[in-house]
Amino acid sequence: MAGTEAIFLQLTILLVLATLSHFTIKRFHQPTIVGEIALGIILGPSILGFYFGVVLFDTTLVTTFASLGAIFLLFLIGLESDFRLIYTRKNVLVASGGVVLPLLVGFVAAYFLIPAVDGVGDNGTQFTMALFVGATLTATSTAIAASVLLDLGLMREPVAQTIMGAAVVDDILSLIVLSIV
After folding, report:
1. Residue 174 falls within a domain, yes or no?
2. How many angstroms separate the CA atoms of 54 and 43, rounded?
3. Is residue 7 part of a domain?
């Protein structure tokens, strides 16, 4: 099958299965994102690839469309959010706690666990490795939170504005921490 035909066939299969998962997951009163994640696990290398040795979708194609989907979702978040409500003192405080707490817990846990692992330390000291582990734990998933809030129709509620505001500020702070480390 030619390249373009294969892409359209893969997209058709993916859209049909995603639509079916949407209706199935709604019967259990769960957010759509739960069905999408479950479908990805089933169709991806975790289930089909591991147990059956079948790869339905080209990894490059899936990555490209996933990136496009994330861009559109974040654009939708921007349309649904009020900038003045995002950057408030409360959101900055919540986000700071969401960065500092995982950073400290990850750092302390990794600092004491790293010496038990053989071969660690070739690329840096125990301190820098633990700092890197702590920094990686600061990231949030703004897109997942936004998807759930959109599904529930709560995006314009004050609590959703706090969640999204804190998540956006948390992402910015996390990127700063990761770029420093």
Report:
1. yes
2. 9
3. yes
Measured over all CA atoms, what is the biggest interatomic distance in the chain, rounded to whole angstroms?
56
- Report which residue type is found at 171: D
Query: What's the pLDDT tens digit per position in 17-53?
Result: 888 988 898 898 888 888 888 888 888 777 776 777 7
| 170 and 87 in a common domain | yes
Q: Which amino acid is at 89?
A: R
Distances (CA, A) of 111 to 40, 101, 102, 119, 131: 34, 15, 14, 15, 8
Kindly report the three-state secondary structure assignment for every residue of the chain.
Answer: CCHHHHHHHHHHHHHHHHHHHHHHHHHCCCCHHHHHHHHHHHHCHHHHHHHHCCCCCCHHHHHHHHHHHHHHHHHHHHHHCCHHHHCCHHHHHHHHHHHHHHHHHHHHHHHHHHHHCCCCCCCCCHHHHHHHHHHHCCCCCHHHHHHHHHHHCCCCCHHHHHHHHHHHHHHHHHHHHHHHC
pLDDT tops 80 at residue 72? yes
74 assigned to some structural domain: no
Exposure b/e, 100-127, CB count within 10 A at least 16 = b = eebbeebbeebbeebeeeeebeeeeeee
Look up the domain containing 51 and give its range: 3-57
